[in-house]
Amino acid sequence: MENKKVVSSLAFKMAEQFSVKGIGLIISIVLARILSPDDFGQLAILTVFINLSLNLIQSGFGSALVQTKELGKYDYSTAFYINLAISFAMVVILFVLAPLISKFYNSNGLVAPLRFYSISLLFGAFNSIQTAKLQREMKFRASMFARLTATLLSGGIGIALAYFGYGLWALVIYNFSYIVLSSITMFFVCRWLPRFEFSKERAKVLWGFGWKMLVSSFLCSIYADIKSLIIGKKYSTDDLGYYNRGDQFPYIISNTIDTAIQSVMFPVLSKIQDQKEKLRETLKKSISMGSLFIFPVMIGLLVVAKPLTIILLTEKWLPSVPYMQLLCLAHMTISLNSANLTVIKSMGRSDVYMKLEIIRRIIMIAILLVTVFAFNSVMAIVIGYVISLWLDVIIISIPVKKLLGLGAISQFRLIWKIVLSVIIMAVATYFVGLISLPVWLTLIIQIIVGITSYVLCCLLFREKNFLEILGIIKKLFNKKSIKEN
Predict the structure, then answer these.
(1) In sequence order, what DSSP letters do the residues of 125-164 get, joined into one string?
(2) CB 178 within 8 A of CB 47
(3) 0.70 exceeded by pTM
(4) What is the DSSP letter of 376?
(5) Which of 173, 245, 258, 346 allows an S-S link to 320, with CB 3.0 to 4.6 Å?
(6) How far is CA 212 from its chain centroid?
């Protein structure tokens, strides 16, 4: 029964991620066709500060609420009031710093948008508790409908404003309205409101786990966003716009698949946190299943990046193609890194998680600084990022080997058939691109050849997880045929 619930939850979480992120991607494509790279570059600067603040608000206590085996009566309300206090403090800080940030980037037009955008943090405090509650209870169907509604409504607002020439404000209001509408729609499915209850004792318990996760998440966010700050200052907002647009497709696609898997696996793993053998097997399943989907999509996107950009975003975004191709290689690592970090977190080892995060970020920032000062180009920064993430795979696996006996080499052995299948797929798809055909026809043929060659390779190499999924699909069709007869 528990396994059935996991499968059902994963199905709804996958549906949520693909529907919400898919529609979000379509909205972003429409906005990119209307607005300029400079508009997106300015938004990227604002988003850095909002994301840092949201990580402070959402990461620590949200994770603690999901990971804790048994919640107390006052836990949700206690976590909410702490998050609300943090969010209010961040709004005040951003209001004060807005003129300085605007001056630093030589753009007076950033002050009002940043101050307006920062108000969304108050809604983020509420939404973080709603999300944790639904995730803990594995009510992903309710979450799907809430976020889908918020995406559609905010997207309509953003596109309308962009069409009528509001530029940067169209992007800011689009993102702001999504956070606000998510809180509203989540209320209707979650039906949770904070009570006038606060427990110092429970705050200490949650803080014991949460503060380490908060520090870890904050360090992660700083590293993820510092590249945008450097590119926006050292080069131009156009360069930053091209970089962010190049990152969008690989990030959204890889993150969508991985978030769906890890959102379901985290509460499941937390329930078996004391059973090491089960944890080990579940981790192996998570790594191989994530790689089965993420690897071919990332390599496929790398090969078709140019025709895809021309068709969807127009030729004005062609400078983003090399960034997109390199970042596809970077985001392949998410299936390995995220699974390992999730299992450490689910075991309640936030101490290990935090120490690991500090070590990882020191190494990554060192590589980033070398690329910035030694090579002085956006491309060098991106190449350094790719190297950092693949080095990260080895670093993260070290504590996992100590905890569960599953190191980097063992993990690579799990996915060697997937890697070989992806290489063959990439070669076949690349040669199709050498044929002189219309752009749209080239893209269609490449997609067909890519999917076909990958499926055939998985069948030929008898990849375990692929055959397992194929078996489930066959059973579903057989049941449907029996019912119809």
Answers:
(1) HHHHHHHHHHHHTT-HHHHHHHHHHHHHHHHHHHHHHHHT
(2) no
(3) yes
(4) -
(5) 245
(6) 20
Residue 9's φ and ψ, nearest 5 degrees, are: -65, -40
Going from the C-alpha of 302 to that of each of 225, 241, 305, 471, 472, the distances in angstroms are 23, 19, 5, 30, 30
Q: Rounded mean pLDDT of 204-208? A: 70
b/e sequence 228-257, b meaning 16+ C-beta within 10 Å: bbbbbeebebebbbbbbbbbbbbbbbbbbb
Q: How far apart are CA 415 and CA 288, in angstroms?
A: 6
Q: Is 462 left (phi over 0), alpha (psi -120 to 50) or beta?
A: left
Question: 226-270, pLDDT tens digit by residue?
Answer: 888 888 888 888 888 899 889 888 988 887 777 766 666 666 666
Q: Which of 86, 354, 3 is nearest to 209 (CA)?
A: 354
The string of pLDDT tens digits covering residues 295-318 is 999 999 999 999 999 998 888 899
The span from the CA of 302 to the CA of 328, in Å, is 6
Please report, in angstroms and rounded to a whole number, the separation of the first and last CA atoms in the chain: 28
Which one-letter DSSP state was computed for residue 106? T
Which residue do the tokens 């499968």 mark?
A: 7
* Element (DSSP H or E) covering residue 171: helix 168-190
What's the rounded Cα separation, in Å, for the pair 257 and 276?
A: 25
What does the pLDDT average to over 164-174?
A: 93
pLDDT at 1: 42
Quickly state the pLDDT bin for 83 (edges 50, 70, 90).
confident
In degrees rounded to 5, what are phi and psi of residue 416? -65, -35
The residue assigned the tokens 């006052």 is 74
E strand or H helix at 95, and its extent?
helix 75-104
Smallest CA-to-CA distance from 236 within 363, 405, 105 is with: 105
| Mean pLDDT of all residues in 99-103 | 90
CA distances from 161 to 80, 218, 222, 242 (A): 33, 32, 30, 22
Question: Is the distance from CB of 212 to CB of 351 less than 8 angstroms?
Answer: yes
The token pair at 201 is 């004792």
Residue 162, CB-side half-sphere exposure with 13 Å CA sphere: 24
Which amino acid is located at 348 in the chain? G
The more confident residue out of 409 and 277 is 409
DSSP-assigned letters across all residues of 402-453: HHHS--HHHHHHHTHHHHHHHHHHHHHHHHHHTS---HHHHHHHHHHHHHHH
